[in-house]
Design goal:
Order of helices and strands: EEEEEEEEHHEH
Strand order of the largest sheet: 3-5-1-9-8
Strand content: 35-45%
Length: about 200
């Protein structure tokens, strides 16, 4: 507790689901997630990472791959710098049955309390030459990040060539506690500038 008896941290509780993915032409995919956050953030309950079952599409060619992978985590922090992001990695078999990455994506946990739906565009790293493309296809060892968390951080992938591939839909239920008491005020998300007295530290993490 702070010197005056008030709170010295705020809480952010996140629940929801990684609902489904759209990956045209691909099937039998599964999804992994992990949360990335700043050094002042501490998880107090829930799971920081997880993995789904393998989802298969229905007979409909455009059908989504449904995971319904639950999310449930609570953080505490003293300031909003490094606001949590969720990083997704989707994997599935290639034509030879090798397990290869089918998409990476990341998004910040919504700032405003309430229910939110986010659709993440996914991407995969690309080989830089035709020879590398053929070699990776033939051996089943396609380009991928050693640590998927690099997707959220940006550092070390400035010159990575990537290709868009698919979308993933996530639902978030966000509850915050004591942010106002610590001087942080959230602006309604339907406003054009999505700001908060805290946003300077949230972005570019």
């Amino acid at each position: 507790m702070a010197a005056g008896g008030g709170p010295d941290v705020f809480l952010v509780s996140v629940s929801g689901e990684i609902e489904s993915g759209q990956f045209p032409g691909l099937d039998e995919l599964y999804c992994k997630f992990c949360f990335v956050y700043g050094q002042d953030w501490v998880p107090t309950a829930g799971l920081e990472e997880g993995i789904s079952q393998i989802a298969c599409r229905s007979d409909a060619a455009a059908a989504a791959l449904v995971w319904n992978l639950p999310l449930d985590i609570t953080f505490k922090s003293t300031n909003p710098w490094g606001w949590p992001q969720i990083v997704l990695s989707v994997y599935g078999p290639d034509v030879f049955g090798h397990d290869v990455v089918r998409g990476y994506g990341a998004v910040h946990v919504p700032i405003e309390p309430g229910r939110h739906i986010r659709t993440l565009p996914m991407f995969v790293p690309e080989s830089t030459s035709r020879l590398q493309k053929f070699t990776s296809w033939f051996t089943g060892r396609r380009p991928e990040f050693t640590d998927p968390r690099v997707v959220a951080q940006g550092e070390g992938r400035e010159v990575t060539r990537v290709r868009s591939q698919g979308f993933v839909t996530i639902s978030f239920n966000v509850v915050t506690k004591d942010m106002t008491k610590l001087g942080y005020e959230v602006t309604p998300s339907d406003m054009e500038s999505h700001s908060m007295s805290v946003t300077e530290g949230i972005h570019n993490y």
